[in-house]
Amino acid sequence: MPARHRTRWTVALTAAAVLTLGCGALPDPDLPDDSTPQPDQPRPTATTQVDGTKTVAEFQTDAEDAVTLAERYWDAVFDASGVPFTPVRTVTTYRDSGELACGPEPIPADNAVYCPAGDFIAYDADWAVTAFRRIGDAFVFYLLGHEYAHAVQARLGIEHRYAVEHELQADCMAGAYLGDSVRRGDLSLADGDLDEFRRGLLAVGDPEDQPWFAPDSHGTVQQRTRAFFNGYDGSLKACDLT
Questions:
Q1: Domain housing 152
Q2: Is residue 99 part of a domain?
Q3: Distance separating alpha carbons of residues 145 and 196, to the nearest angstrom
Q4: Is residue 14 situated within a structural domain?
Q5: What is the pTM of this model?
Q6: What is the rounded end-to-end Cα distance, in angstroms, of the chain?
Q7: Using one digit for the tens of pLDDT, what is the confidence trace for 171-208?
Q8: How confident is the model at residue 220 (pLDDT cuts 50, 70, 90)?
Q9: Long-range Cβ contacts of 27-36 (<8 Å, 24+ apart)
Q10: Which of 23, 44, 172, 182 could potentially form a cystine with 239 if both were Cys, beta carbons 3.0 to 4.6 Å apart?
Q11: How many angstroms separate the CA atoms of 72 and 34, rounded?
């Protein structure tokens, strides 16, 4: 899924809460030392086609493209409304539970979060690369699009009584960002990318027996898939941002 321009799942515990990605753990990836790009290697361009090797370098390029594309998208949305947009302060990686914190809350492993306290997105690099390898590159764009949607919710002052409502709206917003980017020609979908979105949503849905009102509920597979594709097909008007 190459972007033509170079361009998570969350529960509010407190006003400065950690927002956690309820995906469940994935097995540790096998990351050979030589898979990490060296400083003297040229960086791939944003239009580089995914070659199917699913290397760490390929993942890093896709993650950077996903963030930059999200920033471009939301900047244009805010600009159209006459409102200035401030990008997320930083996007960072971690590898162990407690290596990073959101306010007083340690960020757990096998997760991705938007932290309003520090205005940053963080994700477990090993976990994210494993998901990238198992599901596909489209998942990276969904993952970071979902977390960026939480940052936009914070900028708009959107709050929900139940966590599941907040999560499903972020799924819809991620779908709108991706669908609109495809329609504008800013993002090219390869064969199978829509199926990768569906497989990713299948991986992150709540268990069927989880109460919808639980503080860590994100929505069932059916709810999350419906919310995402409502946004993908219907743009932001489907996401009830009023």
A1: 54-238
A2: yes
A3: 15
A4: no
A5: 0.77
A6: 31
A7: 999 999 999 999 999 998 888 888 888 888 777 755 67
A8: confident
A9: 27/130, 28/126, 28/130, 29/126, 29/129, 29/130, 29/133, 31/56, 31/126, 31/129
A10: 172
A11: 33
